[in-house]
Design brief:
Chain lengths: ~575, ~575
């Protein structure tokens, strides 16, 4: 029988932590899931359905012990944007397309595992991710303002238009909604810092204190729902409420496999899969490293892939590991994925018996919960660091950030990847190339521009600080020919390859070209400090055959000594 | 007064070479230009107009002394394909769009000079260029078969469809056209190898011998035109002929500046400009290096830019430096751009007085001239070399080759660039990382898998053979954590940075992460052999502040000695 690793070695002592963490996460998850459903433009039950079966499947196949899978902000935003972009406006159509999207995301993740394509996330640089997440958080927060102030702003506008609409309409804010929304924000804030510091001074046990401090969203939900119910705010003040959630556990359904729909969803599905995978793996890794556990990227693809397929066939939409809830799970002492299974069970119980309680839940409160969940994702620190350390990275961060805000999330990621790749290639197309000289009488050779070193008119040693590949072959050729043109006495060039780990075909042809051009002007080419793997590949090439014998030296010093002694009879 | 450099220092002795080369190039250029016009689907006079003013402008502004500018195969092919793709079918419309295209190409080249974007050609790797040129040569040769066999195959089909049509229609070949076409091919072949070896055995002077051997196309034109004229093949056998070329020099016109047309032409214009620039610079560099001259890429942009604008305003189409004619110019002894000015003058003279002679020139002969000009461009050698040296490069070569043949030229270039960039990033995302040990009692440290070296249980030195940047940060983290997991006794990790020339923001954050994760498991991180420019940037970062003091060593040996002595009291 198939049993996940963690279950085979489960110890009794782990149960307590898992139980407490499972309960606390469920308390956060139920209101958060409904809020994220709202963000995706989907009814709350779709998001609640996404919080049962996917958690159990991830527990069975994933590699993180504490990752809390389920509806998350980024995936909800991207799902909502995709549906709007495709012009799917009717609720049944949106729900059905959301199931299909989850199925595609899950299938793509499993195919990425099969094709060993998990490495594609390496193409997303940290600054691009940071710019992308900050801008997405702003979009998410902005999109919720209409609920908080009771306004009517269409979904799917670029962020700056949403902001403009918000500013124009603000004077028409609905008083009742605004009071509920803003009070919810204040309550949620109070549950964060002030309550935590108060509880730490009391004699309440840590587990209970955590449960209380994390129950902010649930308390906000309870209070605001009661107020709406008792004051009849929904009928007398048109406060927007959740309404009827159909009771009962999710049923197993087959998502629509309409070919035209699948083709339209595919590009977004790919990006959503990528972002979901990226988010989950980075959270999982950061938690695992604190407990000396290991995250297996391949297992993550399977865990997330099956979780999304589970979501698709149980009436849900795309899921991933969420940052906030995973942190709650981790700090609440979860020891194993059993915690997630307990959370899933509690969400199921909620679906079975508690849905009538949410009828009068005001959307303004859910919106406040979302705003509070995403605000910590706005990350100015990374920008400041990138600006101080590397302007090019700061540039791609800002580029991604503004592309997301001005156009949309998907364009932002694509623009970010293209920018960071082009900037990297541009940088390595003009590598640092130094002429080096001997330090005193030592065997060390250093940059003549940085150190006081001895040089030789006839023998010039050049160190190239980059791989030789297509992007920099022209630069290398031009630089070497310029050095030769500037030093008329030279008759030996030693190319120091200590930093060269790859020579591609363009680089090889360029070396041949340099050899040939130098020979035309009576200069001999030599190589020093060629690495083992590079040398292995050069063997048998025309370049190596054309190079004079004894022209490859282990060290720069050996090269200089040998060439100097070969010159003595002449000079 | 503005005078180009070469003219300021012109010496009498250079005149003889320039005169002979100028005449020989003109002899090649007149029939070749008309043939390339045919390839672009344009009347011969457009191509002849492109062979006057552009040559003079390039002579004034370009940096190569021997580059022969004018109509070339690739540019003609791409121009023809662009016009067909845009659905421009009427001859006046095609001619007018061709002028506008040349204007755009020229403007783009000048703007690239202003924006210092000449470096973009670095993104084209040698294998991609080779695959692109080979496939283009096949497309060009295939496109001419209909003229050689007197068939009717539409222009602008993908290469495999052209081939299929050719095979289907071959039984309906026109006998007269086929005889002329195949005889022309045989004659052109005879003028290459056999005649050259015969002439070298006679006492004819080298200049005259060269003139004779390069006049193959002109002789083919003369003979086939006479045959058509005397046998009335055009009227009695419907052999396709050139017909009337309006006599007279090109007139200065303003190309159409229709906004819709410009917007449609722009993407192709950008690629044509790029390819024309790339082709011209590589030919110019290869010739210059043989005479210790220097090519200034910036001047080339200006030279080619003004040449294209000159072509646009004198009734021509996009031009570039051609490989074949430049070689003819160079080997015929051209010393300066005066040779090109002489060629231009002779083409002008031809336009003034000789155009009636070309009336009966059969298209089959022109097609044979094109086939002969492009066949040497099919380059299997590069593929064999790439396959032997670097499978990834062979893959991008083949990918580009087949994309050009199956889709089109432009898709081929774009696919080639994407493939080569992705393959490079993929390769550097899994860099060579070696654990090193001490060679004997020396100060040298080498890969433990390749050499017999001494290691230490508690101190592991790891050399990373690549820059630390976004594509490989995950790999580095995983590898180091795996090494720590596999070596339970370790408490010091020395990261040898001798091959690290760039650490981008992602790399820096990754180093911090590694530092933090190692600290969690009681392992200290140290750096050795950090390069000057890298160290300069690390100064002041949080990473360097968090690193323990005295954790950066000049050499691996110093690091190992210091850490070993710090261990002694404990072990």
């Amino acid at each position: 029988m198939f049993l996940p690793d963690w279950l085979k070695h489960y110890e009794k002592g782990q149960l307590n932590g898992d139980l407490i963490a499972g309960i606390i996460v469920a308390v956060v998850l139920v209101p958060q899931a409904m809020a994220y459903g709202l963000l995706a433009g989907l009814p709350p039950e779709v998001a609640l359905y996404s919080s049962v079966l996917p958690l159990i499947l991830y527990a069975a196949f994933g590699s993180s012990r504490t990752l809390a899978v389920g509806p998350v902000g980024l995936m909800s935003l991207m799902t909502g944007a995709t549906l709007i972009e495709l012009g799917i406006n009717d609720l049944p159509g949106m729900i059905s397309a959301a199931h299909t999207l989850a199925l595609l995301v899950g299938t793509i993740l499993l195919l990425m595992r099969l094709a060993r394509l998990g490495v594609v996330i390496n193409f997303l640089s940290h600054p691009v991710i940071s710019g992308f997440i900050s801008a997405s958080a702003i979009i998410i927060a902005l999109s919720q303002m209409k609920h908080i102030f009771g306004l009517n702003i269409s979904l799917g506008l670029p962020a700056y238009e949403t902001l403009a609409q918000l500013l124009i309409q603000l004077p028409q804010s609905d008083l009742a909604a605004s009071v509920i929304g803003i009070s919810s924000l204040v309550l949620l804030w109070a549950f964060k810092a002030p309550l935590v510091s108060f509880l730490s001074k009391t004699s309440i046990s840590e587990g209970v204190a955590q449960l209380i401090s994390k129950s902010g969203p649930l308390v906000a939900v309870a209070i605001s729902t009661s107020i709406v119910y008792f004051l009849n705010l929904d009928t007398q003040h048109q406060v927007s409420i959740i309404g009827k959630i159909p009771p009962g556990l999710p049923e197993i359904i087959l998502p629509s496999l309409d070919k035209a729909l699948i083709l339209k969803l595919l590009p977004s599905a790919f990006l959503i899969a990528l972002i979901g995978y990226l988010e989950s793996v980075s959270i999982a890794k950061s938690m695992a490293s604190q407990k000396r556990q290991k995250i297996d990227s391949n297992k993550e693809l399977i865990g997330l892939g099956t979780a999304n397929i589970a979501s698709a066939i149980s009436g849900g939409y795309p899921v991933a590991g969420g940052f906030g809830r995973s942190m709650v799970n981790f700090t609440a002492g979860a020891n194993s994925p059993l915690a997630s299974i307990i959370s899933a069970g509690l969400v199921g119980l909620t679906l079975l018996v508690l849905t009538p309680l949410f009828f009068f839940l005001p959307k303004a409160t859910l919106a406040a919960i979302i705003v509070f969940a995403v605000l910590p994702l706005i990350d100015t620190h990374s920008f400041k660091r990138a600006l101080a350390y590397d302007k090019a990275d700061a540039f791609s961060l800002l580029g991604t950030f503004f592309t997301v805000l001005i156009i949309d999330v998907e364009s932002g990621i694509i623009a970010g990847v293209i920018m960071s790749v082009c900037l990297y290639l541009y940088r390595s197309s003009q590598p640092h190339i130094a002429i080096v000289g001997q330090v005193g009488n030592s065997e060390h050779y250093r940059n003549i521009d940085r150190h006081n070193v001895k040089t030789d008119d006839k023998i010039i040693a050049i160190r190239i600080d980059e791989n030789l590949y297509f992007a920099n072959t022209n630069f290398l050729e031009d630089t070497i020919m310029q050095i030769v043109a500037d030093n008329s006495a030279v008759n030996h060039i030693v190319l120091i390859c200590s930093s060269v780990s790859v020579i591609d075909t363009s680089g090889l042809e360029s070396l041949e070209d340099i050899l040939f051009r130098l020979r035309k002007v009576g200069v001999k080419l030599h190589l020093a400090e060629v690495k083992g793997p590079v040398m292995d590949r050069l063997k048998g090439t025309e370049f190596l055959n054309n190079l004079s014998k004894n022209s490859i030296f282990l060290s720069t010093h050996q090269a200089m000594q040998a060439l100097k002694s070969s010159q003595q009879p002449l000079s």
